Amino acid sequence: xxxxxxxxxxxxxxxxxxxxxxxxxxxxxxIVDPGGDVAEILKVIEQSGVAIEKILLTxxxxxxxxxxxxxxxxxxxxxxxxxxxxxxxxxxLPQSGAKFGMAGVRTVAPDRWLNDGDEVxxxxxxxxxxxxxxxxxxxxxxxxxxxxxxxxxxxxxxGSVGRxxxxxxxxxxxxxxxxxKVLPLGxxxxxxxxxxxxxxxxxxxxxxxxxxxx
Length: 214
Known about the structure:
By secondary structure, this protein is of the alpha+beta class. It is built from 7 helices and 13 strands.
């Protein structure tokens, strides 16, 4: 079994959990959600000694995708995700960056859009794709069953859930995604959210006030 390890690289003023996810034995992996601060991401990659095979995006918000184009150019790898429904957010990245004082942000399109039921393979690790809209229309979750681990993006957090107070956000849709896509993964699944600390689905099922009763 590939030994999955994840290093968190906090990026942007939003302190987003950009992550380096890799097979500890093979020293090969992926960067997930490079929202910005690309020089810092590259520094962590160099220090880790991990060979990056691709970039993964959970959704198209500036703090998750703002550095994707620059990092792709620096590493010479492809980008996979999110779902096509977030293309409008990826096209608007320069304008979003300007609003938050983030200079040099470029629009980006992935080399592969991801759909529910797809699979992503990286460094011998296989991730099932769950399309989980609500926070954004094209949000996806990456789930590695072998290690019982999920990259959650901004769908579910420790003690909270993703924001839906955007024109395109929907609390009803987000709760449906959590009920139908997240909770069935199993209480033993550890997940890394887009912000804050990692948690377990079972812990959130019991203690997260935002998902009680769903």
